[in-house]
Each structure stands twice: as C-alpha cells, then as structure tokens.
Amino acid sequence: MPVEPSEWERIVAQNPDHSRWYIQRFRDLASAGDDIVGEARLVDAMVSRRSRVLDAGCGPGRVGGYLHSVGHEVVGVDVDPTLIAAAQQDCPGPQWLVGNLAELDLADGHRDGDPAQAAPSFDAIVCAGNVVTFIAASTRQDVLRGFERHLRVDGRAIVGFGAGRGYSFEDFFADVDAVGLTTDLLLSTWDLRPFTPTSDFLVAILRRT
Hints:
Layout: H1 7-14, H2 18-31, H3 38-46, E1 52-56, H4 62-69, E2 73-78, H5 81-90, E3 95-98, E4 122-127, H6 131-134, H7 140-150, E5 151-162, H8 169-178, E6 181-187, E7 201-208
Parallel strand pairs: 1-2, 1-4, 2-3, 4-5
Antiparallel strand pairs: 5-7, 6-7
Helix pairs in contact: 3-4, 7-8
C-alpha cells in the first residue's frame, strides 16, 4: 500500500513556496550569527570521531552539515527534494538523499555481522527540528522501527520535538516501546536540561532494546 503522505508534504502541496521560505529562514539566521547547530553539538559530544551519523529529516542540512564539518560521515534523508537540493548546495560533503523515513532502507551491508540484518550501521541517528510531528500518524512506528533497524548495537537515536504539535509525549513513548527501542535519557532541551512532567519540549536519547 502507498505510504500516507506526511504533514510536511501536505503543507508543501498547499503552498509550494513553503520549502523555499524554510530554507531562507535558516540562511538568514546563519547570516545573522544565530546558533542553528545546537542539536548537532549534542550529537557530536555523544559519538567518537569519524562516526557514522544519519540525519533523519535533514531539511536543508544545518545539523548534518555541521556534523560533517567536524569529521563525521553523514547521510541525510528528507522527503522534500527542494530541501535536499538546498543541503547539497549549502552543505556539500554528506550524502543527501530524497526519501520517506517511513520507508527507510539504506541497505548496503550486514548490520553487526548478521547476514539477516542487511542495513548499514549508524553510530547515531538524529531527528531534530520537530520532524516526528510532521510524520503521518499511521507511519510513526514504521519510522521508529527504521531507526532501530539502522542502529549499531551500541548506537543511539536522538529525537527532539515540542508538545502541542499533534504527537503527545505519551504516544511517542508507547511507540518507542512497541518497536524495540528503549530510553537512555530524557531531556527538555538540546543543552542538557532535565525533562520533567511539565516540560514542553522533549529530547529523547534512545537505544536498541
């Protein structure tokens, strides 16, 4: 069956200029000297030099581009070809791919030496910028299952998104449990402040169960 279109795809279908506005927004922030790579610095602190990192929902490449610049091997995937084109232009070096995260399949080898697990092993998967709230509800577990399938045994997935965007934290935690991931650490910001029951933002650091 065809994959249900994501909320991002619906927005772009209604407003074809939305992607270009989004790209320009972050170009303007970068030009103004604003910090647009806080998520990437957290990921960089979690992994060794020259790690393999998947930027899931990479947009125009701000997170993956920074991680590449500090020496990591980066693959970025986004459903929007306009955003991927901007990533290729602004952040050359990583491998930027158009694709739906619900159908994530980057098979090019065997995971952890197991021939039955044909997928590349990533040391980290980062999914920032509220990406999971733009995923179609029917595909949320598929996306998280893809993260689990593409992680090394000791790899971690880092997912950040805000409250009040149609995907409750409770539903997210239930989906995490359902796909074979478990929580290592919960934060309320990308600068390591603890998550509490009243937090309006979640940064979840996950690993394979």
